[in-house]
Amino acid sequence: MANEKALQAERKKIIARLLEIQKKFMELERKEGVTEKDIHLNPVGIVKEYKEEHEKLADRLVDIAHELKGSIRT
């Protein structure tokens, strides 16, 4: 149960950070005209950093979900 509690706490932190990153993307879109194409096809600078962090956190979130359900990621 302690492991499940730790995973749930980590999950909550990851989701909060993902939401922060999404807000940053939205700010960049409004203020600097960053588009989906800029994010996905050829990210540079802070956009690249946000994208890489977002992907890493999303991947970890999937791992946590599998751990909590006792399933295997394929």
Topology:
Layout: H1 2-32, H2 36-40, H3 45-69
Explain this structure to me?
This protein is mainly alpha-helical. The chain contains 3 helices and no strands. The longest helix has 31 residues, at 2-32. It is elongated. The mean pLDDT is 91.
Give the percentage of residues in beta strands: under 5%
The percent range for helix content is over 70%
What is the arithmetic mean of pLDDT?
91
Q: Encode the helix/strand succession as letters.
A: HHH
Total beta-strand segments? 0
User: Which structural class fits the helix and strand makeup?
Assistant: mainly alpha
- Profile the largest sheet: none
Low-confidence stretches: none
Q: What does the radius of gyration come to?
A: 15 Å
- Tally of individual helices: 3
- Give the termini distance in whole angstroms: 25 Å
Q: What would the principal axes of the Cα set say about the shape?
A: elongated
